[in-house]
Structures are given as structure tokens and as C-alpha cells.
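in:
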């Protein structure tokens, strides 16, 4: 007798039951039904699912009913690990009796995440020392000891290479430095291909792709998804459904992948790599181009470049393009039987990228933004000439939605109460019809684009009862950088009322360090500051000691998950608008202004809304959490236009501007008599 296929409700119930403490959630059920309907109708879907909805199961369960491969893309390693190590194994155990088979899943990462046997085989004793020369800092007095340490890491990688079944760097414990890993891994653009490589049949990266091709569900990341789109979609296996989790991050990840740069150190490194493959005069031309780039970067202030490149940088890029093309001609094409192919292909790949980037910068197209990066005074950093696309909306509209249904989900997809802004950034909004009264992006397509619908399934949390949104409306409008005295006083008052348990999210490192200085001086609490120790260790100490505050900058705004009583106060020093010197944000804002819209409203405010929502979302992580989100920027209350928009982008906490009310609530939470 043929087994009848279980329906969605039955599968979801089994999956939820398998979760420790799992209970049916209306939002999760609505989302699962919407995903199934989207697949059936061939219509793309945006789903906002608040924290605690259980959105992973809400898309994984209907994915099992698609009848073909499904790809799930995440922005963070934390979510990828959660899916692969917990959610998917538990789901497969739960549904196997109902389906009559065990679903399969695989992780697909970029090629450089895997050990390259050809690179490992060709890595000699001189490579660790060479790697140090290529990555040397200002003081090079300890390079012999460092070379010895790298050599030991390479030997450990050789031993591991004999035992590992996957070659996945994430499975190497303890890990190795990036410098060591670069010596034994191969970026995709530098690979000669399995057919041309003597280790092709044993290649770990190829094996991972083969596993992905046979899996029901493939888990990947936004960066590889972007590379796949821009490379013609031949890396990720063909599939019917693509789920983009943490979808508010996708456009930025695509922009990063489409970004390119020129740095003198990279040109020098390329010249050394190609030295044995080209004539001496070609090598000299490459080194001269690196020198010219150094001079050009030295003469040009940091910041955005408008119009054509300054003469010195224009000349350097022209020299570099000519030298790179001469080197490519000298090396020649890599033939299938070329015994030097493993050495030639990486050199050719990097030279081609240098030439393409130099030509792109010289062309100075309107759809690109160029800028110079330099180290901050007194700090580390790099000198580079960078170019990135003004917008990726058109790229996404053209390449993301073809021949598959896309479900994009996140806890923060509605900004100001509308999906319009996120939809436009993902290439789903028609041009010149912005819901906020702004014109469309320059990169948007000319037609209405793919058909889509949107759904907000809410959150199971009772935000008005679990949290307070307090805005310090009595504070002066922030004007100076750092942490003003009045803001510091307010911070001390709030933290002292609770007695610790505070996550401080600051707009700059200077403000975070000033806050730490004040709190250490005026309280007896343990103050932890991002950068003083590794972030996992800081978070663990914050979680374990209630009389502790953890202070940091942007990466903490969405990278910390501390449910329970350990975090009952989230303090945000000021509204997280992009800085005026952020080249991409400034260029995009200017483009909207030039088209007759408001760049501030269309670019800066949505960026701040996403960041603010992510930061405020650190407070309530479970049904039992209680606490306060305190924003020490009066503009959130006094700016009627964007202030209301930003508040509508936050969870619906109970709202107050009364300092006495909030200190009373914090004192009760802290157990004060």
C-alpha cells in the first residue's frame, strides 16, 4: 500500500514537538503556510518574523515538500551553525517516520574555506617566511619566531590533511592563523579546476559541491550567494526555492562582493607571485605600478572621489592596467596539460582582477562609487583605492529571482511600518514609486520587476509588558562626537539603578571608551569593553556575572544573544545614522537628492532604522525577559518626521520619556528595596 504524503500541519507539529519545550506558535504556522503557498503560486515572498517566532522551522518544514533542492542562505555563521548543528538534524529525526525516508542536508561554502591539496603539496619551507614579508607590520623584529610558528602550523595542517574527511577549516580545532590558512587554501578565481588538477579527484571543495548537489536542503551564506549570482549561477546547485534568512543584510553583502580595490601591498605581492613566470622588464613594470599607486594614495586625502580620478591615481591605474596586461600576455593561456598550471592560474587570476579594477576606476562610471581608505591617525589600517556599485537593486532584480521562488525573511524587514524600503533594496520595488515619497534607485529595472507579496507574522513576545522604550528627551540634541557630559550622567544614573546587567551600544569607539571610563570611576561594577578581550569571552563573562556591563560598537548591535536576567538594560547613545564620510551612503544620498527626492529620508533614515531595530532587539530574546531599551538621543522623541518613523521600526515596547518612571522600573528589576 502506498504511503500518503503527510500534510504541512502534520510535519510542522512533529518538528515543533521535537524541539525541547517546543509549542505551537500562530506566527510560525502562518509563515509556514505562506511559504508553501508562495511555492505553489510561484510568487516571491517577504516575511517579517519577530524574535521567538521560530522562523527556521517555518521555512524548513515547507521546504521538505518542495520536491526538489532548496537552498537556505544566511548572513551570519551563528545562524548557519544553528541550522546545521541543531535545527536540521532535529527536524530530520522528527519527520523521517512520517516521510518514510531521512531528508538530507549539506553546507556549501566558498572554495577558500577548504584545504587545497595541490596548494598544500606545493607549500615548501620558504612559504611561511614569504607570508611574513607579504603581511609585515611596522615593526618586523620578530619575524624569525613568527616564521617558526607559521611553519609549525603548516606541519599541523599537513597532518590534519591526512585525517580530515571534509577539509573544512571550521572543523580544524584548534584553528590556525589566516596567514597559515592562505598558504593551503585556494580562492575560486585562482583554481585551475578539478579536470586540470592532479588532486582533482580528492578535492575537498569539489566533494562539498557534490554533496550539495545530492541534498534536499543546502545551507550557504549571502557572500557565496552573491558570488554565484554575479558569476552566472553555476556554483550553487539548481533549485526551486531559495530562502534568504537575515534578508536585511543581503544588499550590503552583494555590494561587498561587487566591491574591488587596489592596494600597493597587493600589487607587490602579485608581482612576486608572477616573477618566475614573466620577463624581468614585466616584473619591473608591476613594481613600478605599485610604487606609483603608493605615491598616488599618499597625495590623495581619504574619502570619496567624485568624477575622474586625481591625476596621480589616474596615472597609477593606467600604469597598473598596462603592466598587468603585459604580464598576462607573458604568462599566456593555461592549457589543460600545462605542468605549471597550478602556479600560472592563480597568478593570471589576480592579474586579471587588477587589470579589470584599474580599468573600472579609470572609466569613472556614474554607477560606481570610488574612494580612498587610509589608516586613522595613531591606529592601524590600510591604504587602498576602492570602488563599489552605487546600487545593487537592479543586479538583484535581474539575477536573484529567475527560475526559482525566493522567500526573504528577517526580524527587521518593515521600516517605519512598511516593507517598501527593504523591497526596493532587494530589487522588488518599481522605480519612481517609493512608498516614502522618494524616487527609485538608479540601478532599478525599468519594469515592475518580479511579483511578490509580504507578510508580518509578528512575535510571540508581549513587548508592551516585557519591555520599556525610554527616550531621554530632556537631554540636549547630540552635536559633538564622543560622549557628552550630560549623556554620561544619564548613563551612570540608569546603570546604577539596575546595578549592572547592561549592554551599551555606542556609535563610536571613542564614545564607548569614554562611557567605560566614567562607569569605572563612578560605580563599582565590572565594565567590559569590546576589543579588550575576544568577544565570545566577553559575552560569557557578561552572561555569568549580573554586576557587569558590556560596552561596544556596531558589531555588538546584532551579534549578541543573551536571554534571561543577564541583560535587562540596553543603552543606545545616539541614533545610528551613517557617518557623513561613509562613501557609499553619501553617494547614494546625493543620487536621491539629484533625482528630486530626499537622500536623508531615503538612505540615512532607513540605515538608522535597521541598526536601531537590531540594537533594541538585544533586549527581549525569550518569553521571560524583562527590561528597558534606553535611547540617550532626544531626537527619537523630538524629531516628528524621522523620529516617528524610527519608533515605528522598533518592537512595540511601552514608551516613556519620564526619567523617574524608568529609574523606578530599573530599581525594581535590580531588586532594590
Amino acid at each position: 500500500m502506498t504511503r500518503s504524503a503527510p500534510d504541512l500541519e502534520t510535519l510542522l507539529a512533529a518538528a515543533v514537538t521535537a524541539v525541547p519545550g517546543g509549542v505551537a506558535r500562530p506566527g510560525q504556522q502562518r509563515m509556514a503556510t505562506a511559504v508553501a503557498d508562495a511555492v505553489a503560486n510561484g510568487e516571491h515572498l517577504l516575511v517579517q518574523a519577530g524574535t521567538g517566532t521560530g522562523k527556521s522551522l517555518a521555512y524548513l518544514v515547507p521546504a521538505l515538500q518542495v520536491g526538489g533542492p532548496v537552498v537556505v542562505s544566511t548572513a551570519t555563521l551563528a545562524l548557519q551553525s544553528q541550522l546545521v548543528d541543531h535545527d536540521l538534524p532535529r527536524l530530520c529525526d522528527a519527520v523521517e517516520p512520517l516521510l518514510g525516508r531521512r531528508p538530507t542536508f549539506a553546507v556549501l561554502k566558498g572554495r577558500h574555506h577548504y584545504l587545497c591539496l595541490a596548494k598544500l603539496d606545493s607549500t615548501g619551507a620558504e612559504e611561511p617566511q614569504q607570508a611574513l614579508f607579504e603581511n609585515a607590520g611596522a615593526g618586523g623584529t620578530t619575524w624569525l619566531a613568527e616564521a617558526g610558528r607559521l611553519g609549525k602550523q603548516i606541519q599541523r595542517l599537513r597532518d590534519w590533511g591526512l585525517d580530515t574527511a571534509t577539509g573544512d577549516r571550521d572543523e580544524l580545532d584548534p584553528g590556525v592563523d589566516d596567514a597559515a590558512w592562505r598558504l593551503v587554501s585556494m580562492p575560486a578565481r585562482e583554481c585551475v579546476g578539478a579536470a586540470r588538477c592532479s588532486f582533482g579527484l580528492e578535492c575537498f571543495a569539489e566533494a562539498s559541491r557534490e554533496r550539495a548537489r545530492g541534498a534536499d536542503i543546502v545551507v550557504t551564506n549571502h557572500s557565496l550567494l552573491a558570488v554565484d549570482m554575479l558569476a552566472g549561477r553555476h556554483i550553487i546547485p539548481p533549485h526551486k526555492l531559495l530562502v534568504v534568512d537575515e534578508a536585511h543584510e543581503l544588499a550590503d553583502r552583494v555590494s561587498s562582493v561587487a566591491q574591488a580595490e587596489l592596494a600597493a601591498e597587493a600589487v607587490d605581492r602579485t608581482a612576486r607571485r608572477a616573477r618566475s613566470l614573466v620577463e624581468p622588464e614585466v616584473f619591473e613594470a608591476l613594481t613600478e605600478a605599485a610604487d606609483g599607486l603608493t605615491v598616488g594614495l599618499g597625495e590623495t586625502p581619504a574619502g570619496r572621489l567624485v568624477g575622474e580620478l586625481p591625476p596621480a591615481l589616474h596615472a597609477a591605474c593606467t600604469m597598473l592596467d598596462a603592466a598587468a596586461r603585459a604580464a598576462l600576455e607573458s604568462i599566456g593561456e593555461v592549457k589543460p596539460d600545462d605542468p605549471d598550471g597550478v602556479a600560472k592560474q592563480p597568478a593570471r587570476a589576480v592579474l586579471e582582477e587588477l587589470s579589470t579594477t584599474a580599468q573600472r576606476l579609470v572609466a569613472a562610471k556614474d554607477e560606481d562609487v570610488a574612494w580612498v581608505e587610509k589608516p586613522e591617525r595613531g591606529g592601524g589600517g590600510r591604504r587602498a583605492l576602492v570602488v563599489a556599485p552605487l546600487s545593487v537593486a537592479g543586479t538583484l532584480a535581474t539575477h536573484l529571482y529567475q527560475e526559482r521562488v525566493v522567500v526573504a525573511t528577517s526580524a527587521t524587514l518593515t521600516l517605519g511600518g512598511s516593507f517598501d524600503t527593504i523591497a526596493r533594496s532587494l530589487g522588488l520595488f518599481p522605480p519612481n514609486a517609493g512608498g516614502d515619497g522618494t524616487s527609485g534607485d538608479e540601478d532599478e529595472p525599468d519594469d515592475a520587476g518580479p511579483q511578490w507579496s509580504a507578510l508580518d507574522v509578528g512575535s510571540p513576545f508581549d513587548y508592551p509588558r516585557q519591555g520599556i522604550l525610554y527616550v531621554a528627551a530632556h537631554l540636549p540634541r547630540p552635536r559633538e562626537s564622543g560622549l557628552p557630559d550630560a549623556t554620561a550622567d544619564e548613563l551612570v544614573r540608569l546603570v546604577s539603578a539596575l546595578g549592572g546587567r547592561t549592554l551599551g551600544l555606542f556609535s563610536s569607539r571613542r564614545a564607548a571608551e569614554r562611557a567605560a571610563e566614567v562607569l569605572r570611576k563612578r560605580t563599582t561594577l565590572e565594565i567590559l569593553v569590546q576589543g579588550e578581550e575576544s568577544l565570545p569571552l566577553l559575552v560569557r563573562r557578561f552572561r555569568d556575572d549580573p554586576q557587569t556591563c558590556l560596552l561596544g560598537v556596531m558589531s555588538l548591535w546584532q551579534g549578541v544573544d543573551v536571554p534571561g536576567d543577564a541583560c535587562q538594560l540596553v543603552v543606545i547613545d545616539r541614533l545610528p545614522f551613517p557617518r557623513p564620510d561613509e562613501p557609499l551612503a553619501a553617494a547614494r544620498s546625493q543620487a536621491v537628492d539629484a533625482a528630486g527626492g530626499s537622500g536623508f529620508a531615503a538612505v540615512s533614515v532607513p540605515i538608522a532604522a535597521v541598526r536601531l531595530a537590531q540594537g533594541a532587539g538585544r533586549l527581549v530574546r525569550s518569553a521571560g525577559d524583562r527590561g528597558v531599551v534606553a535611547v540617550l538621543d532626544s531626537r527619537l522623541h523630538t524629531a516628528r518626521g524621522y523620529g516617528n518613523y524610527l519608533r515605528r521600526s522598533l518592537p512595540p515596547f511601552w514608551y516613556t520619556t519620564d526619567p523617574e518612571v524608568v529609574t523606578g522600573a530599573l530599581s525594581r528589576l535590580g531588586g532594590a528595596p
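note: DSSP finds 27 helices and 18 strands in the chain.
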